[in-house]
């Protein structure tokens, strides 16, 4: 951010509760960890899913997967003061998400992507979201929940949103896939 680096991570309590935290370096001094969201996800073990964050100026977006009480969801939270405080998280998907999130800042909000289950198996989804709410959820492509399918990546260049992912194929070589959409495709 304009005020310095910020590190976002899934903290772990002695009771195995995993919540999102942030530490920031402001004026050359590291802050104490502060809570972004009290999800209270209790899981014994290390979740594969970590957060994704992006910043522009003092604006910061953080997206993450959680599964509190065995109810999976993808959430996003915004900060307008370099992570000093956050708006309440917005739930993007509470149907059947798998996580593996990515987030990129755009103008007055962000594009967030994730994996989720659907009638076709597993797909990559994305939506435009702002601090005051989310837009339509868009299905980008089919994927796989296999670990070797990795984490789909999203990048924005000028007015184009690019998605890249590993297309896992059982008993065949995997391939790198990519799709591009105009930013206008993602509606508020």
Please give the count of helices.
0
From the structure provided, what is the oligomeric state, counting identical versus distinct chains? single chain
- The beta-strand count equals 15
C-alpha termini separation: 25 Å
Judged by helices, strands and strand pairing, the structural class is mainly beta
Rg over CA atoms, rounded to whole Å, is 17 Å
Strand content: over 45%
The major sheet is characterized as: 4 strands, antiparallel
The SSE order reads EEEEEEEEEEEEEEE
**Helix-residue proportion:** under 10%
Shape: globular
User: Which regions are unreliable across 5 or more consecutive residues at pLDDT < 50?
Assistant: none
Description:
By secondary structure, the protein is mostly beta strands. It is built from no helices and 15 strands. The mean pLDDT is 93. The strands form four sheets. Strands 1, 2, 3 and 4 form a four-stranded antiparallel beta sheet that branches. Strands 5-6-7-8 form a four-stranded antiparallel beta sheet, with no helix packed on it.
Please tag this protein with its features.
single chain, 188 residues, mainly beta, four-stranded antiparallel β-sheet, 61% strand, globular
Report a brief summary of the structure.
It contains no helices and 15 strands. With 188 residues, the chain is mainly β. The chain starts with 5 loop residues before the first strand and ends in a 6-residue tail after the last strand.
Question: Topology of this structure?
Answer:
Blueprint: E1 6-12, E2 17-26, E3 29-30, E4 34-42, E5 52-56, E6 59-66, E7 73-79, E8 90-93, E9 97-106, E10 109-118, E11 121-130, E12 133-143, E13 153-157, E14 160-167, E15 175-182
Antiparallel strand pairs: 1-2, 2-3, 2-4, 5-6, 6-7, 7-8, 9-10, 10-11, 11-12, 13-14, 14-15
């Amino acid at each position: 951010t304009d005020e310095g680096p910020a590190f976002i991570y899934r903290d772990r309590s002695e009771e195995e509760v995993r919540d999102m935290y942030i530490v920031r370096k402001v004026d050359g001094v590291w802050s104490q960890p502060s809570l972004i969201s009290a999800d209270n996800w209790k899981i014994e073990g290390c979740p594969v899913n970590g957060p994704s964050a992006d910043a522009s100026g003092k604006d910061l977006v953080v997206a993450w997967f959680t599964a509190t009480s065995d109810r999976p969801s993808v959430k996003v939270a915004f900060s307008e003061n370099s992570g000093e405080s956050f708006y309440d998280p917005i739930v993007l998907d509470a149907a059947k998400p798998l996580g593996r999130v990515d987030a990129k800042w755009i103008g007055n909000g962000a594009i967030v992507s994730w994996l989720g289950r659907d009638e076709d198996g597993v797909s990559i989804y994305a939506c435009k979201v702002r601090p005051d709410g989310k837009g339509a959820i868009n299905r980008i492509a089919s994927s796989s929940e296999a670990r070797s399918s990795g984490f789909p990546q999203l990048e924005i260049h000028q007015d184009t949103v690019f998605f890249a992912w590993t297309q896992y194929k059982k008993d065949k070589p995997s391939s790198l896939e990519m799709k591009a959409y105009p930013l206008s495709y993602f509606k508020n």
